[in-house]
C-alpha cells in the first residue's frame, strides 16, 4: 500500500506500510499544481474507503432514467426496483424522463431530458421491502416507543430503449 508522487518541483511523498505512517516534503495538492503531467498511484487505506471512494459507472448500461423519485442506470433485459409506482403486475410502462441514452460508444445527455427518448418496461410485481425498526427511548423516564416501517416497492423489467 504505497503512495508515490513525483513532480518537477522535486516533491516526494511516500507512505510506509506500517500503520500508514507517511513522510512528505510537500503537500499532495502542491505537487499536483506543480506538474500537470503528474504520475500518481493512489489506493485508499481502508476497505470502507475503497467502497465509498470514486464513483464507478458500469459501461454496460443503455440509459439513465428518472423513476420513483430517483435515478436508475438501466439495461435491456434486466429488472430493477424503485419506490412504488402504484401499478399492477403485467402493466406496460413507458418512461419518458430519460436523462441519458447510450448508443454503442455514443452517449446522448439531455438537458435535463433527452428529447424523444423512451424506455419501455413491464411491471413484474408490487411488493413491500424489509421491515425497518424505529425505536425511540428517553433514559430514566420509562419512555419506550417502537415502530416498524416497510417501504412500498415496484419491480420492473426493461424491455427496450428507443431514441
TrEMBL record:
Single GO molecular function: rRNA binding
Superkingdom of origin organism: Eukaryota
Pfam families: Ribosomal_L21p
Gene Ontology cellular component list: mitochondrial large ribosomal subunit; plastid
InterPro entries given in the database record: bL21-like (IPR028909), bL21-like_sf (IPR036164), Ribosomal_bL21 (IPR001787)
GO BP, one annotated term: translation
Keywords, alphabetical: Plastid, Ribonucleoprotein, Ribosomal protein, RNA-binding, rRNA-binding
Compartmental location: Plastid
Family assignment from sequence similarity: Belongs to the bacterial ribosomal protein bL21 family.
Protein name: 50S ribosomal protein L21, chloroplastic
Species of the source: Pyramimonas obovata
Taxonomy of the source species: Eukaryota, Viridiplantae, Chlorophyta, Pyramimonadophyceae, Pyramimonadales
Amino acid at each position: 500500500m504505497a503512495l508515490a508522487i513525483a513532480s518537477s518541483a522535486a516533491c516526494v511523498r511516500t507512505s510506509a506500510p506500517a500503520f500508514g505512517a507517511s513522510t512528505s516534503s510537500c503537500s499532495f495538492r502542491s505537487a499536483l499544481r506543480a506538474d500537470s503531467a503528474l504520475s500518481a498511484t493512489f489506493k485508499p487505506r481502508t476497505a470502507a474507503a475503497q467502497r465509498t471512494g470514486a464513483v464507478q459507472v458500469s459501461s454496460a448500461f443503455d440509459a439513465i432514467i428518472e423513476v420513483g423519485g430517483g435515478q436508475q442506470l438501466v439495461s435491456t433485459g434486466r429488472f430493477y426496483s424503485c419506490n412504488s409506482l402504484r401499478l399492477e403486475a403485467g402493466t406496460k410502462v413507458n418512461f419518458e424522463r430519460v436523462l441519458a441514452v447510450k448508443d454503442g460508444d455514443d452517449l446522448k445527455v439531455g438537458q435535463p431530458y433527452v428529447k424523444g427518448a423512451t424506455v419501455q418496461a413491464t411491471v413484474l410485481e408490487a411488493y413491500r421491502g424489509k421491515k425497518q425498526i424505529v425505536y425511540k427511548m428517553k433514559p430514566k423516564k420509562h419512555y419506550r416507543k417502537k415502530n416498524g416501517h416497510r417501504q412500498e416497492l415496484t419491480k420492473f423489467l426493461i424491455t427496450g430503449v428507443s431514441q
